[in-house]
Specification:
This protein has 102 residues and is mainly alpha-helical. It contains four helices and no strands.
Length: 102
C-alpha cells in the first residue's frame, strides 16, 4: 500500500483503497469497478489489502450473519475506517518527506 500512483494504471492507491469496501460489496458502478480491477491486477500491496478485507468480510458474515445490524452502523464503521486510513496516509506522507518531524 504505497499511497502513491501505480506505475501502470495511474490510479492512486489511496483512491483504490477508499473504494475497496464498496467494490467488495458489489456496490460500485461498473466504470469504477474496471478501474479498481485494473489497479488490483497491477498493484501487489493493494491486491493483498483486498484479499485481507474480503477474508474479514467473509469471516464476519459467517459468524455474525444472523444478527440484525442497526441501519446506521455501516456508515459509522466506514466513516471511522476512512478516517483511520486518512490519518495513516498522512503519517506515511510525513515519514516519507525529508526534514519533517512526525
Amino acid at each position: 500500500m504505497s499511497g502513491g500512483h501505480d506505475k501502470h494504471s495511474g490510479t492512486p492507491c489511496s483512491e483504490v483503497l477508499n473504494k475497496l469496501y464498496t467494490y467488495i460489496d458489489g456496490e460500485l458502478e461498473e466504470p469504477n469497478c474496471e478501474q479498481i480491477r485494473q489497479h488490483l491486477d497491477e498493484c501487489g500491496p493493494c491486491l493483498e489489502e483486498h484479499g485481507l478485507e474480503e477474508a474479514v468480510k467473509k469471516l464476519v458474515a459467517k459468524h455474525c450473519g444472523c444478527d440484525p445490524v442497526p441501519m446506521d452502523l455501516r456508515d459509522k464503521v466506514l466513516g471511522r475506517l476512512s478516517q483511520a486510513r486518512t490519518e495513516q496516509l498522512a503519517r506515511e506522507a510525513r515519514a516519507e518527506t525529508p526534514g519533517t518531524r512526525a
